[in-house]
Amino acid sequence: MILCTTRQQGITLVEVLIALVLVGFGLLGMFALQIKSQQAEVDVYYRSQALFILEDMVNRMYANSTEAKGSCYDTGNLGSLPGQWVGDAAPYAGCSTASDRDMAAWNETLRGSSELVTVEGTDTPVGAMTGAVGCIEVDATDANLRYVSVAWQGVLDVAVPTNTCGQNLYESELKRRVVTMPVRITDWK
Predict the structure, then answer these.
(1) Cβ neighbours, 10 Å, residue 101
(2) Angle ∠(64,128,72) on CA atoms, nearest 5
(3) How far apart are CA 4 and CA 59, in angstroms?
(4) Which of 19, 30, 41, 140 is exposed most, by the fewest CB atoms within 10 A?
(5) Could you give the C-alpha distances from 73 to 67, 79, 154, 184, in angstroms and in order?
(6) Judging by beta carbons within 10 Å of its beta carbon (0-12, 13-18, 19+), is residue 22 exposed, middle or buried?
(7) pLDDT above 80: residue 151
(8) Using an 8 Å Cβ cutoff, are 70 and 185 in contact?
(9) CA distances, 189 to each of 86, 181, 182 (Å)
(10) Integer distance in angstroms from the first to the last C-alpha of the chain?
C-alpha cells in the first residue's frame, strides 16, 4: 500500500469556476429583487397620488353639495373621461362655474399639470400617474350616493379590478389600477 504524504495546496480552476457561477447566480437574484422592489415602489407612489387626487375631488363635491346632488359631477354622460378631454372648462351644460371649475381642475390634475417638464420648447405635464382618468358615477339605487374613482396604469400585473373606470384604456387589464370612494351627498342645512 502506497500512502501519499503530499497535500493539495491551493484550489483548482474547476473550483474557481463553480464559485464564480454560484456568486453570479446570487448577484442576478439580487438584481432581479431590486428591480421588482423599485417597480412595487412606483406602484405604491402612484396609488398615493391617486388617493390624493380622489380625496381632492370628494372635498370639492362636498363644498358644492347642491350641484353634486344633480348631474354636474357625473362623468357617466361624457363621451370621454376627465384626464382625457382637453380645455379650460368641463363640458357640462346648465352647471355653475364652480362645478365647471372643479371638474376642469380635476382634469388638469389627472393630466399631471402640477408638474411640467419642458421638452423642445413645449411644457409637458408629468405630475400624475400614467394614463390617469377619473370617474364619478351615480348609484343606480340611491340618488344621493356617488362613486368617485381614479384609474391609472400600474407597473406590475395584479388581479383585474371589478370597477369599470378606465376599463380597456391601458396596455393590459392586469396593469389597470382603480381606487374608489363612495360619497353620500346630503343637504347641509
Answers:
(1) 15
(2) 25
(3) 87
(4) 140
(5) 7, 14, 26, 13
(6) exposed
(7) yes
(8) no
(9) 36, 24, 21
(10) 107
CA gap 72, 94 in Å, rounded:
8
Give the residue extent of every domain in the chain. 42-184
C-alpha grid cell, residue 9: 495546496
Helix, strand, coil percentages for the chain (3-state, nearest 5):
40, 15, 45
Q: d(Cα 126, Cα 123) in Å, to the nearest integer?
A: 9
- Residues 21-41 have pLDDT tens digits of 999 999 999 999 999 899 889
Q: How confident is the model at residue 92 (pLDDT cuts 50, 70, 90)?
A: low
Which three cell numbers, joined as nine digits, stand for 43? 406602484
Region of poorest pLDDT, from 79-83, 128-132, 171-175: 79-83
Q: What is the pLDDT of residue 188?
A: 55
